[in-house]
Amino acid sequence: MADKQDKEEAKRQREEEKRQKSIDSELKKSKSVSNDGTKSHGEILKQQITEGLETYDKKASSLLLSSLTAGLEIGFSYLLICTVYAYFSKSLSEDISYKLTALVYPVGFIMVILGQSILFTEQTSLLTLPVLNKKRSVGSLLKIWGLVISGNLIGGFLIAMLLLWIGPRLGIFDMQIVGKVALHAVDFPSLVIFTSAVLAGWLMGLLSWLLSSSRDTLSKIVIIFIITSMMAFTGLHHSIVGNVEVFAGLIGSPEITFERYLNFQVFALLGNAVGGAVFVALLKYRAFVYNIDVK
Questions:
Q1: For a 10 Å CB count at each end of the chain, is N or C smaller?
Q2: Residues of the signal sequence (predicted)?
């Protein structure tokens, strides 16, 4: 009985190896499909896997520093959100004023992504693809996610404290605005935050995919603006920008408790991870794989 099971397992492994070779072969052959340089599904997937592997090969110190930088840079979106909200709420309703922040929300993302810093939500699907392609393990994925999230959060803590000090002194926003911005993120049930974060993670994964299909900087800026402003206008939860918003509220507003901050952060991170890994990486990868015949 044991011998039969061993033989079946060995057969299954051979078939899996054969299938993986077919997938790698198809990815290697993937090329642009038109004269205007439009990239095929396979070419984008190959590029995403290659970029993901390059990130895996970086030293832990480099990953941590790059992700910390991203956490700092994304704070410029928060600075503009508070500034625009404070300015327009003097003459417009608070709801309209907050919607207008969608116009400046993309600035931090443009800085981070074009500056090649490592942002968790933009890298989620990118880092999952090498695991799906069996080039890296789930353990290595969780380890690198941990490093990137830690760097992003620490950077967010630092920039939040700096902006809380400088904002009121420049007269561009006060602690009341800080509290209201934070409440816009946390004032929902946990399930709503999680589901909203799944949609945001899905959009960020698509953002990474679309950036791989574009060739010039202007196109990339337009794509980043469209995706991230959509997230802001609809109020979808982004764990890294939200970290700055809610942590600032934790420091500057009595309405934000540590429990509310932790609840937001946990469910936003989980949702963003699921959105990017499942709805982009897994679906895009499987759509390519299911079209391949094992040779």
A1: N
A2: none
